[in-house]
Here is the input.
Amino acid sequence: MLDPKLDIVFKLLLSRPDNESLLREMIEAVVDLPAPIAGLTVLNPGIPRDLAVHKAIVLDLHVRCVDGTLLDIEMETQPRPVLPQRVLYYWASLYGGQLQRGHDYDRLRRTLSVVWLNGKLPVFGERFHSVFELAERHTRGRLTDHLELHFLALPSLWSSGASVSPRLGRWARFFLAPDEQTLHALAVEDPTMSKAVAELERLSHDP
Here is the structure.
């Protein structure tokens, strides 16, 4: 079975139109949304064949929800110290790309990054799910909800100590599953996991 933590497998798994429900469920498991996602579109579903094996390429997903919310989603297989700066840069590119010359700023929509990490960085400590926002230093009042960066450090799932929702925990266990037996046991627990495992099996048998 292919490893769902591989960035190319991660993107293939979640970018197919037939798998919109998987992507929607994953986003809702990570992000605290005011309402369930009514629909979404992957803006960059393709993977250039000549670049897919290039080490420098970032195989992220750009997603637009029907309410205009934008997300940049990726799996980072080898987190490096510059990861926070890179994630912020890609967030800024997606956020700023909403406007053309002459557009009003009220067209800007909430933009979030969701980064699954197959590793740890000191800035996250032992937390599994770290969320960074724009807040006033003293009062912690949020300036805007338009910036939200989510980092999910898979190796910290069991050591975090923080409460993890069953929904989010299942996705983490899916990515961490060491073998097919564990995946199939997870599939029995939940229809979303059943679909995710079936799609991973399909990808694994695709030449």
Helices lie at 7-15, 20-30, 83-96, 166-176, 180-189, 191-204.
